[in-house]
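Please supply some protein, with fold tokens.
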Amino acid sequence: MVGRGSFATVPPNACVPPVPSCRSRPAPPSRSLHRGECAIKASSSSSRAESAPAGAPAVELHGITKRFPGVVANHDVDITVRRGTVHALVGENGAGKSTLMKILYGMQKPDEGTISVDGEQVAFHSPGDAIARGIGMVHQHFMLADNLTVLENVVLGAEKLHGISGRARARIMEISDAYGLGIRPDVLVEDLGVADRQRVEILKVLYRGARTLILDEPTAVLVPQEVDALFDNLRELKAEGLTVIFISHKLGEVLSVADDITVIRRGTTVASVKPADVTRKQLAELMVGSELPSPETRESTVTGVPMLTVDSLSLSATDPDGVVRAVLDDVSFTIHRGEVLGIAGVEGNGQAELVEAVMGMRIPDGGTVVLDGDDLTHAPTRRRREDGIGYIPEDRQRHGLLLEAPLWENRILGHVTERPNSRGGLLDIKAARADTQRIVQEYDVRTPGIDVTAASLSGGNQQKLIVGREMSHGPKLLIAAHPTRGVDVGAQAQIWDAIRAARREGLAVLLVSADLDELIGLSDTLRVMFRGRLVADADPATITPEELGSAMTGAASGTLQPSADRSDRDGDPRETRGEDKA
């Protein structure tokens, strides 16, 4: 497993959910599986599943209803997932997708409705019941214990399969080596980046022998080449009879990989369609009732006034195996007022450390950080906040929210000394509550009230609350790490609009994102980070996601030039923006 302090590029099949068990020698990781190579590991329902003809229902949900205090999360939902298919589930944030999948995985119990697996009606009281019936889930927000190792996380709750030491380690390495997951079983999970955590979650599912996989936003941290590799393997896996329920907000990906699509809106199913019968625009309208937004930024607002200057920043870290590595190596750049600087890179190449160094969460070994003329290199994080740095963290639940605290307390988080949260050195609860209500209304945070906990919101609504909080203090610099990860097209549009509006007012933005369309569409300047160094730069008006993704793997450096024979995508907003900038 690649930790934050090391820089191996992500293997092509890094996030591919493989067939769980092979009786013969594992297939080499450089190729995908073919029919007949692997036998699925037996489970309590394997004989029924294997005898079911291809295309027979693997999972059926009928009349599912789930209520929470003040909220009806699901209402009369019907979904039929065919064996050996990729079934996409799409809908806006808060539509009820995650709740529905938690019901299927045994984490929630429906108030009404039935669940059938391989034609037999079942009642799940825990995830263990679902796992016993061959259902596994990789959550968008990972269910891992930070203070445990990878091995301990994988075997937790599955000790009876292969024990907790030698045989378990051998099985983990067998799966990892066969499919190029790059797992290091003794690394602490707290030392892993987001992409590495996702691979651990996938390995957990495979270790338990799942035949039906629920993948919640599995491509959120992948570059285009890795997405293509994932989809190739999904197509091979479904040929083996594996069933995949694929949740994504990236409608192009859904249309590319899915056999069937179910659309959920405001808690109920509104459509079941075939990819060949619907366009991205029509799918977006089914989801949110509006057209698909674009991250394009037509006009240039870049000034000549430096806002953030990072000079010769260096940082080293010690890996769990004791090796000292340079995670930031002589990093220098300047962001001007009204400019968005986009940082592209495969997860684990120093982007997270760069963000933390600018925020004061890590003390650099050398170099300087200057904000609007003030040297903040050794300033604490609170002073940087008070001096005008806004921060959208890459993991909203670990670093952006107190999940068990109400929304109004989360509005105060990170800005406790600033108005309207405090006055005269004391917290102003009344003003903080009133401003939380304003944020909820302006940013369309779907919630029954500001006294509910942050944990009760969907991921996209949590993100909108964070964006509203950070933008409410008129920051000079916004550090936006994956600002729209896991949010629907409607929430994407709101977040992009908020960033563009502040940019027009002079906001400088350091943007880190795994969504290359977002990077290209929002950025005025693009830099590529590889092994802790800024190795390439590109013009957002001419670069394609494929060319940028290639540079992220170290295949190119210097100033990236567009391919002479590249064919532009229909209606590519970058071409319009490029003409405007010229």
Observations:
- The longest strand covers residues 306-318.
- Confidence is low (pLDDT under 50) at residues 1-49, 564-582.
- The radius of gyration is 24 Å.
